Amino acid sequence: EQGHFLEALKLTDEAILAYQSEGDTAGFAEVLSSRFLTLRHLFNKTGDQNYLILAKHTVIASVEIAQKTDSSATALPLFNLAKIQEELAELNEAISSYQQALKIMKTNPSAQHNRPGVIADMENHLAIAELKNGDQTAKQRALDALTRLSQSDEPQYNQDVWLSGGYLRLATATKNKTYLDKAKVIIDSNQELT
Hints:
The chain is an all-alpha fold. It is 77% helix and 0% strand.
């Protein structure tokens, strides 16, 4: 997020090698999800569609690799796949991937991500994708998820990133400046956010 893209890519490559040498397939898949985030940030910074294509195929590989392990390892890769599908306006596919990720997080969560704030963030992403796909009732579900997220014991940085992101996505989906203003208040109150 701070723009150190080459360093981030090198670190994910080092982590991939470390997870492979330890035989940790779930970790291998999860670090590919981290690589996806860097590639998506590169797309957002440069506008180069090649980064978006590479991000999509990186996260698809992450899902395939995670599926070789226990099912709890597939939640985060599926969640990230849904994000890229949504960005590519593949809304039906994104909704399906969000639903699958959420189902795993509710029924068989990984120990590392088993937190109410993570579920609330996923629910917010799902509701906004549904709203973009024409389901007007999803707006209230998106707001409810943000309320649950704000009341969670998630670390402050995570909470602020996810809340501001949720309000920004809601502002984009509804064209309502109120949500943009709410995101700005959160962003301005936390110096760690970039």
